[in-house]
Amino acid sequence: MKMITWEIPVNREQIGYEKRTPAASITGYLLDAISVAPDRKRPAVIICPGGGYEHLSDREGEPVALQMTAMGYHAFVLRYSLAPDHFPTALMELASAVAEVRARSGEWGIDSKRILVCGFSAGGHLAGSLGAFWNREFLYRPLGREPEQIRPDGMILGYPVVTAGALAHRGSVQNLLGEKAEDAAWLEQVSLEKQVGPHTPKTFLWHTASDQSVPALNSMLLAGALLEQGVNVEFHLYPAGCHGLSLATAEVSGPDGRYEEPQCQSWISFLKIWMEHFEA
Questions:
Q1: Using one digit for the tens of pLDDT, what is the confidence trace for 119-162?
Q2: Per residue in 26-81, pLDDT tens?
Q3: Which of 33, 176, 187, 211 is most buried by its number of CB atoms within 10 A?
Q4: Residue 27, helix vs strand vs coil
Q5: Strand residues in the chain grouped as ranges (E)
Q6: Cα separation of 34 and 38, whole Å?
Q7: How far is 134 from 259, CA to CA, in rounded Å?
Q8: Positive or negative torsion for Cα 207, 208, 213, 218
Q9: Which pTM value belongs to this model?
Q10: For residues 204 and 266, what is the distance between their CA atoms, to the nearest angstrom?
């Protein structure tokens, strides 16, 4: 396996204001070709850690990437822009990352029809936003891209922030929108249950019923909206587990064991089956 890292710049012309935080970056974990199948094309998963659009959770970055590589997928971790940079800065960075991975799919041994985005908590909102907005001019045109270049082929969302309505995680919404967080039109714009459509890619979704930070009804709203739009969705709701579980294993848990939840660890096994039968 080899690792690569590159920056993803955005500029004033793209986002409409002067960017105030350092450039986003992405780290790739690329599996080596094997002698028995030197021309094999593997899926790629671009991972967006959570952190309320305020910080990035290391627990939801490299450990998840290594799990993806263990299952035979190339993996990438995006360190996207946070507050005080606001929507759609991070979304443009993720869209650019998808386009770059797709453009270099031949070089990196990637199946260009199986490039997925994965996100947790606020990172789930970011990944879900690309699934909702990849065909909108406000996103692809400033980047100088075509919609199909930035389209994710699937979404993997863990306990995602979905809505800016009554069930919102207010901190994420405030950090995402800044002064616009009181504007009803902007709140609707970033409420994914109101923005997904038949164009949204198939989705793997999981949450815990006891999540006290982002209510599980966020995922239920999204699952319902996707089903109404005819989008293929697999949804797992676990009865127990705190917010921010990531892999829910000892590997990502602190000394107090807070983030180790054995009954939630099965989401990775379910995901593997979903990926094995994946058709974009």
A1: 999 999 999 999 999 999 999 999 999 999 999 999 999 999 99
A2: 999 999 987 557 788 999 999 999 999 999 999 999 999 999 999 999 999 999 99
A3: 176
A4: strand
A5: 2-8, 24-30, 42-48, 74-79, 110-120, 154-158, 202-208, 233-238
A6: 5
A7: 33
A8: positive
A9: 0.97
A10: 13
